[in-house]
Amino acid sequence: MYPVYQYYSANKECKEVPVAFPPQHQNIQPGYEYMMAPRPISENPAYNGSGKLKDKVAIITGGDSGIGRAVAYAFVKEGAKVVIVYLNEHQDAAETEQRIKELGGEALFIAADLRDENTSSYVVEQTLKRFGKIDILINNHAVQFVQNSILDITKEQLENTFQTNIFSYFYLTKAVLPHLSAGSAVINTASVTAYEGQKKLIDYSATKGAVVAFTRSLSLSLEKQQIRVNAIAPGPIWTPLIPASFSEKDVMKFGTDTPMKRAGQPFELAPTYIYLASDDSRYVSGQVLHVNGGTMVSS
């Protein structure tokens, strides 16, 4: 049995989240949530929506699992309709779709490779066909490959990491932008590695630094259109990307070097995305919010 951390939720219920994880590794990117043990915690059952995103339509990439799944559940609870774009993790996507139905939400699932620029136009076309509009874009998908040295990063890996983690953010944002209006929001998932670096994730960290600069520059560009652009920089979060990239040994100690001495769970990020997507953050743009277990970073 893995060690757990106990905390009390807002309604005084005692909850538990894992502190450390048993050894595991998946030889595939971006990984499968259904194969993880323990499973990530995607939903806070005590969270009750208040209509902050009522009738909004949100595109969420990487929404089949991990952070994207948690955001999708929270958005649905707040009244949004969601479009989940994922690569090929069909079993995870089916599970997410079932839970959204149980929550009474509406969702469209699209399996697509966003590294292809033409795919973004298809996602927008299908979204408009189903829901008629787009209000929120969540660029969230990513890959990462652990290498001991920059000498081990091949041209193919470098191109794949940049195509997935930043080029596709450009492509989808460009395709979505003509359909956004004043009050719309774009939210990008960055990473603590953009600020701290990570010696075994050089190319990944570089893409996340690019996401930060992309966020700030796009915010300035869209200021007159009153479209807000922000980012969230997660610390170590228990998602399929972790066993898909790290060794069994590294998985066992994942997140324990944070001030809170544990990795975060996907549901612990979801309220931050709600904040940035809703009118609560009407005076916030070009910012990066850090959800990282107490790690101090300088911007």
Structural overview:
The protein has a 7-stranded parallel β-sheet with strand order 5-4-3-6-7-8-9, sandwiched between helices. It has a two-stranded antiparallel sheet with strand order 1-2. It has one domain (50-291): 3-Layer(aba) Sandwich (Rossmann fold). The relative contact order is 0.17. It starts with a strand and ends in an 8-residue tail after the last strand. The protein has 299 residues and is α/β, with parallel strands linked by helices. The chain is built from 9 helices and 9 strands. The mean pLDDT is 95.
List the helices and strands and how they pair.
Blueprint: E1 4-8, E2 14-18, E3 57-61, H1 66-77, E4 81-86, H2 90-102, E5 107-111, H3 117-131, E6 136-139, H4 155-176, E7 185-189, H5 193-196, H6 202-221, E8 228-234, H7 241-245, H8 248-252, H9 270-277, E9 288-291
Parallel strand pairs: 3-4, 3-6, 4-5, 6-7, 7-8, 8-9
Antiparallel strand pairs: 1-2
Helix pairs in contact: 1-9, 3-4, 4-6
Give the SSE string.
EEEHEHEHEHEHHEHHHE
Q: CA-to-CA gap between the ends?
A: 39 Å
Mean pLDDT: 95
> How many domains?
1
> Beta fraction of the residues?
15-25%
Identify the strand order in the major beta sheet.
5-4-3-6-7-8-9
CATH class: Alpha Beta
As for the CATH topology, it is Rossmann fold
- The computed structural class is alpha/beta
CATH arch. level architecture: 3-Layer(aba) Sandwich
Largest sheet: 7 strands, parallel
Number of helices: 9
The helix content is: 25-40%
Residue runs with pLDDT of under 50 for 5 or more positions: none
Which term fits the overall shape? globular
